Amino acid sequence: MNSSSSSSLVGDSTPPDLDRLKTTIERAAELLPSQGPITAFVFLNTLQALEDLPFEEGVLKGSSLFGVQPYLSEDRYREKMTRGRIRPEDLSIVLRRDLAERADLKLGSLTTPFDIVFREGSMTSIEDLKICPWTTPFEIRLAMLQYPLQTGPVEELRWFVAETDALSRFRADAPQAARTKVIDETRRWVMRDLRDGGDDQHRGTGPHGTHDQHLHDDLIRRFGASSIEHWSPSTWEAFSLRLLWRVCRDGALIVKSDGSAVPQRPVLRHREALRQATNNDSDALVHDVLIRFCAAFTDQGFAGWKLPVRDHGFYRAFCEVYRLPAGPPDRWMHGLSSELARLTQQGLGPLESIRESLDLLGVGDEEQDDYITASLLALRGWAGMIWQMEVRPDRVALSAPPGSLIEFLAVRLVLERVALAHVAAESMDYHGPLAGLREAASLRNGNGHAKPVEGRALLVFQLAQIFGWSPPTLHRLTETEWAALVSEIESFSGVERRRLFHLAFERRFRRQALDAISVHAQREAKRVESPRFQAAFCIDTREESFRRHIEEVAPEAETFSTAGFFNVPIYFRGVADAHFATLCPIVVRPQHWITEEVVYSLVDEDRRRAKTRRALGTASHSFHVGSRSIGRGTVLTAGLGVLASIPLVARVLFPRLTARIRKSAGQFVQAPQITRLRLERTESPPGPEGNHVGFNLEEMANIGERVLRDIGLTSGFSRLFIFFGHGSFCLNNPHKSAYDCGACSGGAGGPNARALAAMLNDPRVR
């Protein structure tokens, strides 16, 4: 394969099927993180690619795509309930609104006394009163929200039933009325109908027919049939709970799954099916190789060795490194070198390799989009970094060639094929085609999606303790009634419960916020007639405190807020900077360049200091590279390691003295403080060199007018107006940019504010 064949596959002359494949990859790339480099690391909404969806749909889709949780945990929401951040009436209102006409439907013959329905202290309005004589979906769901229910894998549930006191003592939060009701009705049922053989008109009409007549005989014998008249309250409690558990389990056995339960996430990638069947993760093998190679590919000049043929692209470079005859030493990669050699000999480019991999993996056209998306998101941090280096070359010193993300996916799929074949052979003894691997793994794993009986029974068992459903009550339910009850409980899944919790949480917050706003809205807004000065601040929360402080100590001043780049999107290079920095929101690409220059009288001084900085930078880089080699690293560490610790200790023990020393020493290398911006452009088009730097007069006038109109200031100007840009000073913090201005992509907003002030001070702009 040569570079021309590789580049042609990402151009405009691709065949129709490869062109569709390219479009699919680019569409999936919208879901990748769009963070800039660490020097411009600013917060971004992870779900911004899903902003066209309603909130609830967006978080659920994001949860499925990124393998994360859509809401807080139920424990976190219940913690907010105890702190008053969520109130019972909020839950009640949002739940009734969600159920609509289903709220008061009848669920079989189950009834719930009024004094058992709600937790003590939760009754706050007449709307909460129980008006139906039967148990309703509203009551069941409200109880599932208010009371934590034990759920989990079937093994965990079996352990919970067998090893805890769940079958000997009621839940600690079960209402006392419910406990009394269950025990009393169980005692009457046993004493009258089972032990004495009394007639019960409902006997034998339950879901199990006549064999239920002897359902409790062994249980009575275990607890002591001869002493039943003298059983203690704790014995009756344990007996009632064991009998209740047996009835719940038998009822759950007769319920047939009708698909009403929440569907499980389908197995899409082969890795997921293989991990479920064997507990071995093929991604661990793939990522171990891919992460190291991505680190070399995205290097910005710090590595001692450069990646071979990096300029020819990710795909070509990977093939050059890993197709050597000896190959890597890892057992699972023994077939990689021959596979890469075949791809090179056949002249298959990245898109063609992707199409071949998808065919070999048995990925059909209908699942191709989802499969490609899942494959890219499996290592989304590195994939997003490569994508940003490709589409935003202006943000990095060494950009990625066009088509790098496509080539990344091609390499990933080749590695996946090799890793899947190895893991399947080692853990499953599967040597067939990869297209049949998902089916083979699913057969080995069995039907893991069936709802376990223990799970259903335990949910009913816990709710029975809350509602006071006794064993005879549940025993008399028909098969249809059992199916309706289980369906109602299972349809209110954990995600649904957390969704309702979140709605209640937002309702409480919304009402508190609006109440506070309504109180202050009654006050008459008074604008300062003749402000002493006016100031505009960034809307960033990090600068809000400054604005509030000025309003407090200088009420005769007038303040405004706007985005901290002040509508001046620029590439900026300071007098001591080596490269241009992007100072605007990350979704904006500047079209203009601005440079900082020292005043004429300090040009010679600046030139001398620049030479000093360059010499120190060269020495520092040589020390950095040398300290990571075996020979020089040993010498430097032994000789200068102790000396390097002195400044670190001094910063901790003597911070002020150390700061003064650094400031004094820095005067020999820092750029002069008296500088000016090269702001006005005299030639078109805009560019980073010569007379193409800056804005023309019309552009400056448009920027100034836009900012003033946006903040609502078109008259009543004070004699002094200040634009406050903001940044931060941190020591030894690689994420320093996260404390800078978000509207400047993690840079300081001073140059933008300075540029706007200079524009508006120009009489021609005014």
Total number of distinct structural domains: 5
The description of the largest β-sheet is: 4 strands, mixed
Low-confidence stretches: 1-12, 119-131, 259-263
Number of helix segments? 30
Could you say which overall geometry the principal axes of the C-alpha atoms support?
A: globular
Helix content: 40-55%
- Overall mean pLDDT: 85
Beta-strand residue percentage: under 5%
Number of strands: 7
Alpha carbon gyration radius? 35 Å
Strand order of the largest sheet: 4-3-5-6
Q: First CA to last CA: what distance? A: 61 Å
Secondary-structure-derived class: mainly alpha
Structure description:
With about 775 residues, the chain is mainly alpha-helical. The chain has five domains: about 230 residues, no CATH class; about 90 residues, no CATH class; about 150 residues, no CATH class; about 160 residues, no CATH class; about 70 residues, no CATH class. It is built from 30 helices and seven strands. It has a four-stranded mixed β-sheet, with helices on one face. A three-stranded parallel β-sheet has the order 2-1-7. Helix 9 crosses helix 11. The longest helix is centred in the middle third of the chain and has 28 residues. The N terminus is likely disordered.
Short account of what is shown:
The chain has 30 helices and 7 strands.
